[in-house]
Design a protein that fits this description.
The protein is an alpha+beta fold. It has three domains: about 35 residues; about 210 residues, Lysozyme (Orthogonal Bundle); about 170 residues, 2-Layer Sandwich (Muramoyl-pentapeptide Carboxypeptidase, domain 2), CATH 3.30.1380. The strands form four sheets. A five-stranded mixed sheet has the order 6-8-9-11-10. The longest helix has 27 residues. The protein is flat and about 75 Å long.
């Protein structure tokens, strides 16, 4: 057994005795290194450069052979979305606000008491007081005048709930900006005014009411509204947010650092009040500088319950006279065919689209086309409604382009068909059936329609069985702005 413990280099015990000094040195070195780390002499954590290199390597997609071994369908890479520069966002918001001012002012042509010219004249009557109050608070006089237009249409005695007067201030806001408001006496005098019939008595009662409730005193109400705007603009840092705060309150918009147009496009929590104020400012400017243009706009609006004839006036819009004109337009790409890929477009073609084509000796496929701008809007509506509602069922398209012969044929069987000028004969209009999968889809569709209408990209009419949509010629530009704002 002794021979087995030896080899040609010597025994195992001898070799162990020879390695003792080296083991002792290793233990001492480790002990010294531990002391250095403890007192901060050595830094054993990975460097920042090494950490970045490791993170970069981890973010790279796995090679194909590695992904195959791991049974991955495709490498997954999470990328942070690129932020839109502030200057680009502000420019897009300004352009969208200008478009909205041109689109929403047409609602005033129908809702204004006595017509748009009578309303503008009433508002202009208060111009000296408006300028004086605006200069005192250092806000734009035109903006304060537009708020008077949007809130009360220039009527100093109007009341909507708890908001009364020329600027429609609520009691709490009025008191905060120095107005005396005694609701008990004010309500009593309001009832007495309603029952009085002598003009002299009514005039005296109104003077008394203005003492107890200074919101009925135009000069004081304008000063308070101007002070509210100045405070909101100083707090929020933006004029458009200050205008919206006049309607929703300053507290609700605290901490917001994006333009109002971005808020309106991205969320349903904010209405179009600021856009309507800017629209009123545009109406007053047009009334002063270009009354003939305002008169023309009023005539176009009065033709239908929509602004579609203002978007495409009859005298300058090309219409398709007969089926051969539509065929030629499709060959030259003036009209584009509506795709049938429903899973991608989320738009389904109704079986009734083009049903009168056989009477003209034509195929129904001929009438499955739209102008490029209208087609872009249609596809945008389908995509956005699907994204917002998460409903697989598509929207149903019931009508697209027509020609004059088709329109005359349709008039015999459809009571809703236009008897005079139909936008369908221009290729700028389409109809979507009012048949939705659920309420979520209906609300999403209404949300998209309101946003497109607010930015003057479309004008729509709610018919009995369908939504009739007319598309503006520059709708592609409006869609680009909407995409840029989110």
């Amino acid at each position: 057994m002794a021979e087995l413990a030896h080899d040609y280099d010597g025994c195992i015990v001898c070799r162990a005795k020879a390695q003792v000094p080296r083991r002792l040195l290793q233990v001492a070195a480790l002990f010294a290194a531990g002391l250095c780390v403890t007192y901060g002499v050595l830094e054993l954590r990975p460097s920042a450069t090494h950490s970045k290199r490791v993170a970069s390597a981890a973010a790279k997609p796995a090679p194909a052979h590695v992904a195959k071994k791991l049974h991955l369908k495709r490498p997954v890479v999470v990328r942070k979305p690129a932020a839109v520069p502030t200057a680009v966002l502000d420019a897009a918001s300004a352009s969208l606000t200008k478009s909205a001012a041109a689109g929403l002012d047409r609602g005033y042509f129908l809702s204004s008491l006595g017509g748009i010219f009578a309303t503008a004249a009433r508002v202009a009557h208060w111009r000296p007081l408006v300028v004086r109050a605006a200069k005192r608070a250092r806000v734009r006089p035109n903006l304060l005048e537009a708020i008077v237009f949007a809130e009360s249409s220039g009527r100093a005695d109007v009341a909507y709930g708890t908001a009364v007067g020329l600027t429609q201030l609520h009691p709490s806001a009025a008191r905060r900006f120095g107005l005396h408001v005694d609701l008990r006496h004010s309500n009593t005098l309001t009832r007495r005014i309603a029952h009085a019939w002598r003009p002299r008595t009514v005039h005296q009662l109104r003077r008394w009411r203005a003492r107890y409730d200074q919101r009925y005193a135009p000069e004081r109400a304008l000063r308070a509204a101007a002070a509210y705007l100045a405070t909101a603009q100083e707090t929020l840092g933006r004029e458009d947010l200050a205008v919206e705060a006049y309607h929703t309150g300053i507290q609700r918009l605290r901490g917001v650092h994006v333009p109002y147009a971005t808020l309106y496009v991205r969320s349903s929590r904010y209405d179009d009040y600021a856009f309507r104020v800017y629209a009123a400012e545009r109406v007053m400017h047009t009334w002063r500088r270009h009354p003939a243009a305002l008169r023309f706009e009023a005539r176009q609006q009065a033709r239908k319950n929509s602004s579609e004839e203002f978007l495409h006036p009859l005298y300058r819009t090309h219409r398709f006279a007969k089926p051969s004109a539509i065929l030629t337009a499709e060959k030259h790409r003036t009209l584009r065919m509506i795709p049938l890929a429903t899973p991608n477009t989320h738009i389904a073609i109704s079986g009734t689209l083009g049903e009168q084509a056989r009477k003209l000796g034509r195929s129904r496929r001929l009438y499955r086309a739209l102008r490029p701008q209208a087609l872009d809007v249609l596809l945008y509506i389908g995509k956005r409604v699907h994204e917002l509602s998460h409903v697989r069922a598509p929207l149903i398209l019931t009508s697209a382009v027509r020609d004059n012969r088709y329109q005359r044929t349709l008039m015999r069987v459809n009571a809703n068909a236009a008897r005079s000028y139909s936008l369908h004969t221009t290729g700028y209009a389409f109809d979507i059936a009012r048949a939705y999968k659920n309420d979520r889809q209906a609300r999403a569709f209404q949300f998209v329609l309101d946003r497109l209408s607010a930015v003057d990209a479309i004008a729509y009419i709610r018919e009995s069985a369908a939504i009739h949509v007319a598309v503006a010629s520059d709708a592609a530009h409006k869609l680009a702005l909407l995409e840029k704002l989110g």
